[in-house]
Amino acid sequence: QVQLTESGGDAVQAGGSLRLICAIAGRTTSDLTVAWFRRAPGKDRELVAAVAWTLGSTVYGDSVKGRFTISRDNPGNTVALQMSSLKPEDTAEYYCGAARGWDPNRSSASYNSWGQGTVVTVSS
């Protein structure tokens, strides 16, 4: 099990960019998957992106494809979510989660470690 801490949430205007960081503490195993999810008030939790720690395989939610990029810095023990062309619909609290094994179709229920979240607010 790892411990996750998110940072980088802020208020930004539509069309702007933001970079979120998930800091990972504890043992990072070769089969680790780290993902970003988000949840807006009154909405279900939604997958934003996920990355395989070792191989770098990625998967993105349909609503962010072409605008967001997930990446990992193995020596630095961080996973970044680079967000560009932000829209008001991106406004949400963003969470970092960790799981074992790579499955691009896995649900949030299979993630066993979570951070506390960081808030992103996009204004028009």
Q: Judging from the principal axes of the Cα atoms, what is the shape?
A: globular
Unreliable parts:
none
Q: Portion of residues in helices?
A: under 10%
Largest beta-sheet characterization: 7 strands, mixed
Strand content: over 45%
Distance between the termini: 39 Å
Structural class by helix and strand composition: mainly beta
What is the radius of gyration? 13 Å
Write the element-wise H/E pattern from the N-terminal end onward. Answer: EEEEEEEEEEE
Helices, by number, come to 0
The average pLDDT is 96
For the secondary structure, the number of strands is 11
Summarize the entry for a quick read.
The chain has 124 residues and is mostly beta strands.
Structure notes:
By secondary structure, this protein is an all-beta fold. Helix content is 0%, strand content 51%. It contains no helices and eleven strands. The chain has strands at 3-7, 11-13, 18-25, 32-39, 46-52, 58-60, 68-73, 78-83, 92-100, 113-114, 118-123. Strands 2, 4, 5, 6, 9, 10 and 11 form a seven-stranded mixed β-sheet that branches. The model has no long low-confidence stretch (mean pLDDT 96).
